[in-house]
Specification:
single chain, alpha+beta, Heat Shock Protein 90, Ribosomal Protein S5, domain 2, Rossmann fold, 4 domains, eight-stranded mixed beta sheet, five-stranded mixed beta sheet, 41% helix, binds adenosine-5'-triphosphate, ATP binding, chaperone, unfolded protein binding, ATP-dependent protein folding chaperone
Length: 637
């Protein structure tokens, strides 16, 4: 402390080494498995440092999984002074200088994976002691040094005879604790080494006590030479199968030289829900950083899973995620553009594949096309929509229908589609996610086509009016009908339409229903609430019950003169049309259905009883009180 420090009362932080080692080694990483990643990474960096000065230097990493675990490299090694400086100082790294710049030729070339000077501590998750035996390649006459470090922060340094390590390089040795033995068992070590190191650029081998040796890395398929484009495609598909366990619909090669990125985006063969973002495997300089990276691609690209290896992206300190900086944002945009290009290029290069792709991923494409004019122009004609002509593309549909009508909800579509189709109208179901918006953009892509929202008025206008005499004959019945359904804010019209088997059509839409509910609440409420709801009141939109004059049942109903039966008939027709809309019913609608059903049953049984008691088919059925009468009076249920 300087005199001036004393004067101002300045002090220096003290570090409790045990606590720090515990924090970094146990709490920074998500799983003990990372110990092997840190050891492999140090070995790779040591080889890069040696090769920067001597490109012909050997480049081998051997992991031995036996009673002890060792990782041996042919890298740069350390002198005794290096050991004190780098191994024994937490946060000090030979790969960066005091200003945080990468050190030396290898550092300048961006060859190093490590940078924080804390990685070795990950070994304390599985062992209480780390032993490093090292011989420097940079200082050939430097002795072999053994460093032993404990998780309590103590370390010793011993000079060993030259035979202890005849060649330059480093061996790190761990004696796993009993409770961590599962992480160093040979089979587990092979699995971990494959997972982390499959793309490492130096030879990595795992050996065991029985003399077994497994090579865990090979040239990735995108960097290897292939005999033909077909062989290349097959090699990529095989890589996808072994990495992700699916056969891709296609493989999109990724290459961004500016950040030294190469890899592949594999197109999922099945639809993935947009909410489930696919985890990508991101390697930095060959070493796996994450198998669940979700910020590598734009959100819309949820139909691919990537494997990439990049030099220019930065890891977070736990080395389990990508550091969210401008480079990552630029990489995300560039990879997004690449995937978009693949998609747009497909329509020219492989329409059959595009069809298969759209069959599986049309939701993703629709989501994407809403914000991307070029893609929309390219792909809208290919996208399937539910229409009155079946499941067809918009292009096909627009060719057959100069005016494309679109519903806002699936429910409206279900309701009017058969009748509209019979009346020659072309209707698209706009009720599914994105579809309504997309259909409305059709005129931008197909000049001359026109799109309109389907409303009840449009449908009714296309249904044939009945002749005035028939209308007049049905006037009494229609008056009862208007009175009965008027209570539900519904009008009644008599029209002729196909199919003749449909007795009635209820034209209604969700907005109108909401508006009616609001108006009813305003009527029921009092005080301030009624004023507020009342001030919102617009003209209350009414639904429309269209009775089909071509339907034999409706014709017979139209001639009913008995009021009670007419009420039951209209309630039954309205109830049936209501059910066909497939929307939830209100309490009063359910009560109406119930009532009409019971009344009809009553009428049917009455007819049956009268047939049994009355001789001759022409006699009128008796009333409920036993008196003869043409019809049974309506009963309230
Ligand atoms: N196998 C090795 N060969 C040579 N030097 C090594 C080896 N392993 C570790 N070192 C030295 O020990 C230092 C500390 O290693 P450590 O793994 O803790 O951090 P790092 O690799 O520098 O950075 P990071 O925390 O990002 O992994 C390294 O900078 C390096 O100088």
């Amino acid at each position: 402390m300087s005199p001036s420090d004393r004067a101002t009362g300045a002090h220096t932080f003290q570090v409790d080494l045990r606590g720090l080692v515990d924090l970094l080694s146990h709490h920074l990483y998500s799983s003990p498995r990372v110990y092997l990643r840190e050891l492999l990474q140090n070995a790779v960096d040591a080889i890069s440092a040696r090769q920067a000065a001597d490109p012909a230097a050997p480049a081998r990493i051997t992991v031995h999984a036996g009673t002890e675990l060792t990782v041996t490299d042919t890298g740069i090694g350390l002198t005794e002074a290096d050991v004190h400086t780098f191994l024994a100082t937490i946060g000090r790294s030979s790969k960066r200088d005091a200003e945080g710049r990468f050190e030396g030729v290898a550092g300048a070339r961006g060859d190093f994976i490590g940078q924080f000077g804390i990685g070795l501590l990950a070994c304390f998750v599985v062992a209480d002691e780390i032993t490093v035996v090292t011989r420097s390649a940079a200082t050939p006459d430097a002795p072999v040094i053994e460093w032993r470090g404990g998780s309590d922060g103590r370390y010793t340094i011993t000079t060993l005879p030259s035979e202890a390590k005849p060649e330059p390089g480093t061996t790190v040795r761990l004696a796993p604790r009993a409770d961590a033995a599962e992480w160093t068992a040979p089979a587990r070590v092979v699995e971990l080494a494959r997972d982390f190191g499959s793309l490492l650029r130096h030879e990595v081998t795992v050996t065991d006590d029985r003399g077994g040796a497994v090579r865990i890395n090979a040239t990735p398929p995108w960097a290897a030479r292939h005999g033909s484009p077909v062989a290349r495609r097959e090699a990529l598909a095989a890589h996808c199968r072994s990495t992700f366990d699916f056969t891709p619909l296609d493989s999109i090669e990724l290459d961004l030289p500016l950040v030294g990125l190469r890899g592949v985006a594999y197109v999922l063969p099945d639809a993935a829900p947009p909410s489930r973002r696919a985890g990508h495997r991101v390697h930095l300089k060959g070493m796996l950083l994450s198998d669940q990276a979700d910020d590598l691609l734009p959100e819309w690209a949820f139909f691919v899973r990537c494997v990439v290896d990049a030099d220019g992206l930065r890891p977070t300190a736990s080395r389990e995620g990508l550091y969210a900086d401008e480079t990552l944002a630029a990489v995300r945009d560039a990879l997004g553009a690449r995937i978009r290009d693949w998609l747009t290029g497909l329509s020219a290069s492989d329409p059959a594949l595009l069809h298969r792709f759209i069959g599986v991923h049309h939701l993703a494409v629709k989501a994407l096309a809403r914000y991307d004019d070029e893609l929309l122009r390219m792909l809208l004609p290919w996208l399937p929509f539910e229409t009155t002509d079946g499941n067809v593309t918009l292009d096909e549909f627009a060719r057959a229908h100069p005016v494309v009508l679109v519903t806002r909800t699936v429910e409206e579509f279900r309701q009017v589609a058969p009748i509209a189709a019979a009346a020659g109208l072309g209707v698209v179901n706009g009720g599914y996610t994105y579809d309504h918006d997309l259909v409305h953009r059709l005129p931008e892509i197909r000049p001359g086509s026109s799109v309109a929202d389907l409303d009840p008025g449009t449908v009714t206008a296309h249904l044939d009016a009945v002749d005035p005499a028939a209308e007049l004959a049905a006037a009494a019945f229609l008056a009862v009908a208007r009175e009965v359904v008027g209570r539900f804010d519904c009008d009644v019209a008599l029209r002729s339409f196909h199919p003749t088997s449909a007795p009635a059509l209820l034209l209604d839409n969700r907005e109108a229903r909401h508006e009616r509910t609001r108006a009813r609440l305003a009527d029921e409420a009092d005080g301030l609430w009624a004023d507020i709801l009342g001030s919102l009141r617009a003209e209350v939109p009414r639904a429309q019950l269209v009775l089909n004059h071509l339907n034999p049942l409706v014709r017979r109903a139209a001639s009913i003169t008995h009021r009670d039966l007419a009420v039951t008939a209209i309630e039954a027709l309205y109830g049936q049309a209501l059910l066909l809309t497939r929307r939830p019913l209100t309490a009063s609608e359910s009560a109406l259905l119930n009532r009409s059903f019971i009344s009809l049953l009553d009428h049917a049984m009455l007819g049956h009883e009268s047939a049994a008691t009355t001789p001759g088919p022409t006699g009128p059925p008796p009333g409920p009180d036993g008196t003869a009468g043409p019809h049974h009076p309506q009963k309230e249920s």
